[in-house]
């Protein structure tokens, strides 16, 4: 499962590997496009003379570097395979369980190398703190993406989202009908959170969901931290980063995570249930962006075109996530109906934190989280 949690060991191994056998430098910006700018400066497919020109340039590069994209997260396994098959471009998928911050760290550490990430898939707080590293690019379907889901220049664009949930193994714990159930003795040593909320978008949203259930708000996440303090004191909080393996083995029988990730586990574990608290729905979208120093700049731009095409958006929907273009595709009749039927429907208002609210909450977590669960 894509933890979005710092993995110090993996980062250390990456640095050691880089020192032992440094990958070759890549020419900055790629080749010149039809419009006269380098591929790394192209702001739309028109700079390549249209999609055919972009496809040709991307195929010439032949590779794409992605990072922090587990195959069972948002259907990325099928998305990557479909992209490879469609364009004949090899996708190098590094550190699938890396955090959003580790994506940025990898781009910084490997800048100028052929192994640097070409594209990012980031939680809100990390994305908005690092926009200077992104290359503006407007995909062909840009105007079809709601204004709230994109930077107007295409520096970042939301690709998919979902709702925060509690997944649990009904064969190992009682039915979960509220957040407060997690404090019961039956949940001792069983409740895991997907990541560190100071670095991971999923974990931050989990704490926010809990905060709302405890009388807090998107502007006051303190009650959420206090709940996890009580959970830890009761011995119910399990400081283990959940993965499909830990869920299947029974090591993490309760997981606070995005609904689409929890729902995916039901296919492997029939007793796995997913609960989205109806009174406290928290929604969140991930941020897609191009590394301005991408070693494969044309392939990076083709990847964006693919993700935001009808085909790419329907592949996201098949993974149980809500594509950014879902509403417009429903209106146009281009959203896969079978996939759309599996997306959760929440009646009433949904909490979606603004960038400023996320920044303030993350600052509070940075100061108080470790003391609560340490």
Automatic annotation (TrEMBL):
List the Pfam families hit by this protein, alphabetically.
SBP_bac_6
Please list where the region (Disordered) is annotated. 22-45
| Extent of the signal sequence | 1-22
Any Gene Ontology CC annotation: outer membrane-bounded periplasmic space
Keyword field contains Signal: yes
> What would be an example GO MF term here?
thiamine pyrophosphate binding
Q: Identify the keywords attached in UniProt to this record, alphabetized.
A: Signal
Tell me the GO BP annotations in alphabetical order: thiamine transport
Q: Which PANTHER family match?
A: ABC TRANSPORTER SUBSTRATE-BINDING PROTEIN (PTHR30006:SF2), THIAMINE-BINDING PERIPLASMIC PROTEIN-RELATED (PTHR30006)
Q: What is this protein called?
A: ABC transporter substrate-binding protein
